[in-house]
Amino acid sequence: MGASDHGFGRLLHAWRDRLAPADAGFPAAPGRRAPGLRREELAQLAGLSVDYVLRLEQGRARHPSAQVAGALARALQLSRAERDRLYRSAGLLPPRDETISTQVPPGVARLAARLGDVPIGVFSADWTLVWWNPLWSALFGDPALVPAADRNLARGLFGSGAARAAVASVRSERGDEVFAASIVADLRDAVARYPADSELDRLVQGLCAQSVDFARLWATGTAAAPHVSERKTIRHPEVGDIRVDCDVLLVPGVDLRLVAYTAAAESSDAGKLDLLRVTGGGATLAPPRPQLESGLDSRGERRG
Predict the structure, then answer these.
(1) pTM
(2) How far apart are CA 162 and CA 97, in angstroms?
């Protein structure tokens, strides 16, 4: 049965109308008539084309993938129960409890969206980037332009191509080796918590085959230093080096990490972040998403 047979489009429209623009990180424009998100705003947040969202709502697109359903659930800030209802309305099985979730709870999404003057990224338990704000895009480049499977920090540290380029500009004052070891330790902990997650297993096995350094760290099994607040230097092509404090905040109960970069008020580094906030780092403040039929490539996100 198609998505329209289960009211998928009606759910999308209703939940789009429910979500306040400010809670999704959009400024309130004077004279705005839409009660919630505009269709183009939802498309932008989910990485879909506006036409595809329109056809989903009208029931003309009848078979959304699990990747599309997951992207829409995150964009609409659905609760877990609502996410599962959206999946079932599309004729899909909701994500299993024993696999890593990329669902961002509504409260966390609202909090992150309202901290627009701070670059924020939300990562799942395997260090896959699942949510980011415009200033994150201005600082690091738009993650939506990177294949979804490459938006993983471990792949960035130990892999190549687009994943590597996304993290190449960041240097840790604790030392890159120490930081890399802590990420490997986090993946080892994730494997212990989610032994049934086949995608996590493929990530680890792939990195072991691809990277001698990853394989060495994985094989040693030594305990790494826990994540702490630390100073990092980010080399930006437009404004130069920016020294920032990096804080990793754990979200209890959902196994997410909220990563925030800040600089001391009135410092030159804070001034550079302010400039990026205004200019978008050479891009628009609200980062454009690829205008694809599904919004995700064939290597797209595997979980909702």
Answers:
(1) 0.73
(2) 30
